[in-house]
Design goal:
The protein is mostly helical. Helix 1 packs across helix 2. The longest helix is centred in the first third of the chain and has 27 residues. It is built from four helices and no strands. 17% of the residues are buried.
Length: 109
Amino acid sequence: MQGWDLPEAVGTLQRLMEGRMHKHGRREYVQVLRLLETFTVADLQAAVEQAIALGAIGFDAVKHLVLCRVERVPPRLDLDVYPFLPRTTVEKTVARAYLSLLCDRQEAA
């Protein structure tokens, strides 16, 4: 791999993978590089950039995104298989919450 002229995003992915997954991250990074056996550097770079933007740092995500790019279909990522990614919780909206905002606004007027 020495002397390879890889896009900056691929190096960023390497640092993120190794930082988050340590030894396993190195293995996954090598798997990402092996995608160059099948796909162009431009397609891989676009997939890596998209994965970084989505916060989906992993081989499976990059492979899925590069395949979607080549096949021209929208990606569908299941992030449940990435337990090391930070999780967010979005509560279900309750209409009462909006009504209380309206009541507060009317009282202020």
